[in-house]
């Protein structure tokens, strides 16, 4: 759980997902429910199955999901709460025009008005399609791509404002690679049979979309071939996901003049002028190889290909808001084929997701008023303080770090800002106009509002009070450039945070979540940022080397973990998250021990407090998942699958090994010299 470094990755739709349920009393009566376990399995052979086997057997993935687990259940529960809030707001017929109530009501209702949406068909994008068909030359192509950015479509690359990674109090313009319709570079370049099949399916999808637009079969097939050939060229110069994890390699700040020198093939003057940005200031060019690659691409791509590519980008970004033939085709590929999900979610859930994104903090404000008790915030503040103290104690005792670096680490730990529940200052939506009627127009209004917001930030100080997630999101994040940890209201529910559970279980669940986010400040990426959030090396060479040796062990442990047939976890891609899981477990365990003051709590249901701590952790990650969704996640997600999150980190920890009597010969046993002791 973590904020992706750049907004771009979030936009690309890597979704991580979330959790559990206060409503189902039978499940929540006990913090650890014996029937959820599979006691036929030895904890040392498969700890994940031991804790979760019973639950997994009883909870196959529902048709409208590609995966289902603690996170999904909370998410589901949240949607019902949000819908009741929207219904309440919708009943206020006299909500004044321009009020938040009016905006939420009209946005949601416009999305549910399928009669009008069907009647419109492709009409909402016809004017734009026509403009694309009339483009004459590359200058016009560049100008048109800038107008697409304003309307929430990102051909070739993403453009956004973000903190300058070396001067984190200032917002600067950012360019980040993109422009691909498949989830990752690997999908275009891998030569195995499975990947080839997916590419064939993608070409079919492209073809069908062009047919829906009104092309005949042959022309549609030709355009589909143009699009995938073009995107393959983009993929060839793109960074892999592992390369994207290196903050130094992805930081290339330069003036507009330098950008024009580096990427002369792209008309940046026209691009920025059309965006409405007279003086972009210094620009961070995320991936140099990619942007230099645009030179050749701009030169060799013919107008016919440009038109096919831009048409595809427009249709892809619009499909979900058009008539049902578009929605269905979009789902057939991205839902069914790529993730193995048989059924679409009902419309109200999809529309609610869109409203919850577009008017996120407006809805979030209603959400916390209704569902977030002040007592939760107080308890979290106390817990976070305990965790911070425990982390400090552990840093002081590390045997692999010099005092010099320890002092800096402790300063950074002290400086971490904590945000809990919801923002102190809510986002102002007064400039966003939502009208009854056209869903598509409202989508564009939301996108333009969002775009103008980010455009206005460029060159100004970072607003440190802002949140990167809405309160109704079941997740948490660490933001390295603010050195802050953030816990939205929605994650402060069982099984993460259970007011009725014993402390052992809560420390194993929400305690580890807090420790996880804190550890992100000290993972292989986060450690490169200093206490004020600048990329700035504060490590001695020897300490950096010792850290690398330790994390290499963790990389090896995950690389060796087989999830599906022959598919393994990518240890380098998931390293930051894995360091955070291991650190979170160690720090929270220490905090729990501190809270006991030497006492040993009595066992509950025959389970010792230490066992319940690790089981509290393990049940957060229980999950049923479709093989296709798993395969996709292994390639694209920086988080390891739930199973690996449970079956690897604890086996590096002495207290766990003792608690469950893990022995050599157990399947998950890790010999001492292969274990990772980091934070
Ligand atoms: Zn994380």
What does it look like?
The structure is a single chain. This protein has 679 residues and is of the alpha+beta class. Among the domains are: 273 residues, 3-Layer(aba) Sandwich (Collagenase (Catalytic Domain)), CATH 3.40.390; 184 residues, Neutral endopeptidase , domain2 (Neutral endopeptidase, domain 2). The chain is 55% helix and 7% strand. It contains 29 helices and 11 strands. Strands 2-3-5-4 form a 4-stranded mixed β-sheet. Strand 2 and strand 3 form a beta hairpin. Helix 20 packs across helix 23. The radius of gyration is 25 Å and the shape is globular. The N terminus is likely disordered. Bound molecules: zinc ion. Zinc ion binds next to helix 23 and helix 25.
Overall helicity: 40-55%
Mean pLDDT: 94
Strand order of the largest sheet: 2-3-5-4
The third-level CATH topology of the domain at 7-60 and 380-415 and 492-674 is: Collagenase (Catalytic Domain)
The biggest sheet, with number of strands, parallel, antiparallel or mixed sense and barrel status, is: 4 strands, mixed
Beta-strand segment tally: 11
The level-1 CATH class of the domain at 7-60 and 380-415 and 492-674: Alpha Beta
Structural class: alpha+beta
> What is the rounded distance between the termini?
18 Å
Report the C-alpha radius of gyration, rounded. Answer: 25 Å
Which residues sit in consecutive blocks of at least 5 with pLDDT less than 50?
A: 1-28
In CATH terms, what is the architecture of the domain at 7-60 and 380-415 and 492-674? 3-Layer(aba) Sandwich
> Helical element count?
29
CATH H-level superfamily of the domain at 7-60 and 380-415 and 492-674:
Collagenase (Catalytic Domain)
Distinct small molecules bound, one entry per kind: zinc ion
What percentage of amino acids are in beta strands?
5-15%
The global form is: globular
